[in-house]
Structure formats: C-alpha cells, structure tokens
Specification:
two-stranded parallel ribbon; Nucleotidyltransferase, domain 5; alpha/beta; five-stranded mixed β-sheet; 7 strands
C-alpha cells in the first residue's frame, strides 16, 4: 500500500493581494498629501540645502540692515537708495536681452521681509527674474 501525497505545487501567482496593498498605499498617500498646508512651511532664509546657480550673468542686489542708519542697498558694487534702486536697475539692464534680465538678491538675515518685497515688486513691475541667494545649511 503506497501512501500518496495530495499536495501539489501550483505554479500560478495571485496578484489580488498585491493590488490590495497598492490600493491601500494610494489611499494613504492621497489622505496625507491633503493634510500638508502651504501655510505650514517653516522658512529659514537665507540658509538652504538646495543651491542653484544661474547660467547667465546676473545683476546682484545687496540689502543690509545698518541698525541706526536704516537699510543699505547696493547694485553690484554701487551704493544706492530704495528710491533710486528701480531707476538704476532699469539703466543697468536696459541693453540686456529680456530673458537674461536676472537679479540675484543677497539679503542679510536681519532684513525684514517688507524690504525684500519692495525689491521683488520692482522686479515684477519691470519683468525681471529674481533669484534669492542663500548660504548652505549647516548640519
């Protein structure tokens, strides 16, 4: 009397469990992505892990807080005031192709966002591109 084993190996593979897992992961990521709010960003400028450099020549605008003397503005190496900044940028960038009119904004940490916004508004009015210069974040 021979004892036969009734266990046979089935070579097919069922994908139903894998599709269930993918579906659950999809639902999870959809729910968690809606919980992220753009107002919850913790901006710590001017430090950044991502450094992007412009491939074209840029005009550098510096803003520094001089405590008792107010804010100090400089275009490349020429000192200026906020009132003359727009006119001087127009003179400097008038002969440059519009796609190459790029401003690199170098701002001291102590400068308020109001001052940065003033320069950004000048750039928007004149259709200049703006790059905010940052330093690498320390680890």
């Amino acid at each position: 009397m021979a004892i036969r084993s009734s266990n046979k190996i089935d070579p097919s593979f069922s994908m139903s469990s894998m599709t269930d897992l993918i579906f659950l992961l999809l639902i999870f990521f959809m729910i968690t992505s809606t919980l992220i709010s753009p107002n919850a960003l913790n901006l710590k400028l001017p430090q950044s892990n991502n450094q992007v450099s412009a491939t074209r020549p840029v005009t550098k605008v510096y803003i520094q807080d001089k405590q008792s003397q107010g804010y100090y503005y400089q275009i490349d190496k020429t000192p200026t005031t906020i009132n003359d900044l727009e006119r001087q940028l127009q003179l400097k960038l008038r002969d440059i192709d519009p796609k190459d009119q790029i401003i690199s904004l170098h701002v001291d940490k102590s400068v308020t966002m109001e001052e940065v916004t003033k320069v950004m508004n000048i750039a928007i009015r004149n259709k200049y591109k703006v790059i905010l210069a940052t330093t690498p974040e320390r680890r």
